[in-house]
Automatic annotation (TrEMBL):
PANTHER family in the cross-refs: ECTOINE DIOXYGENASE (PTHR20883:SF48), PHYTANOYL-COA DIOXYGENASE DOMAIN CONTAINING 1 (PTHR20883)
Known cofactor(s): Fe(2+)
Keyword terms: Dioxygenase, Oxidoreductase
Gene3D superfamilies cross-referenced by the UniProt entry: q2cbj1_9rhob like domain
Organism whose genome encodes this protein: Bordetella flabilis
Protein name according to UniProt: Phytanoyl-CoA dioxygenase
GO molecular function per UniProt: 2-oxoglutarate-dependent dioxygenase activity; iron ion binding
Stretches for region Disordered: 233-258
Amino acid sequence: MSSPLTADQLDALREQGFVVARAFAPAVLCDTLRALALRHLEQAVAPVEYEADLAYPGAPPSRQAAGGATVRRLLDAYARDPAFADWAAAPAVAASLQSYFGEAVILSRAHHNCVMTKHPRFGSLTGWHRDIRYWSFDREELVSTWLALGRETNHNGGLWLVPGSHRMDLPADRFDAAQFLREDVPENAALIGTAVSPVLEPGDVLFFHCRTLHAASRNHGEQVKLSVVHTYHGAGTHPRPGTRSASKPEVPVSLATG
């Protein structure tokens, strides 16, 4: 495992809302997680989320339609295999986020905590959004890690992100009813024009804030794209009782400091 994020990388995460840590996860770990993910994908090992159920642009219209069995997410990665759990609590991840939050770090099992897939034919487009739109915490201060298990580019559905958008207070009317950014609004179009799409190689990890605007196109490549995604918050941030955010036990992942 690589070293934790540097002071400069932590500053970049704070300022632009995301940072890429190159070769953060070793190749042997990526190979192990990729093989596990492909096996679970082939067997549709529960719990899973299907593209047809989300009905995003480009998804099959139903489970019975062509491509209806296309999996979008392998859910609850933490509980799928010890290798996924070990990655979620990896010392370099814990140390990086402990430095970022300035306090003990907690893994949310209710959000992300999945292997995100994007299939060439039936993988859907994801519109511009902030992840916090469907989370319920007393503070909007969470960070996700996105581990690339293969090369990710604009061509195969890699993420686009708007630098600094986590700091922006945007009026409600710039979003639609599902809290996706409205692309028909001129101010939004200008904002989207500032987006960047970092190329990720296997083992690269994208750290990004829960308020950072991001999107992803469809996969125009030939192979399924696989990414392991987890979300964390500091011990001083709490899920609101009775919400989906509080629906699963959370996991402390901080390093001992004494």
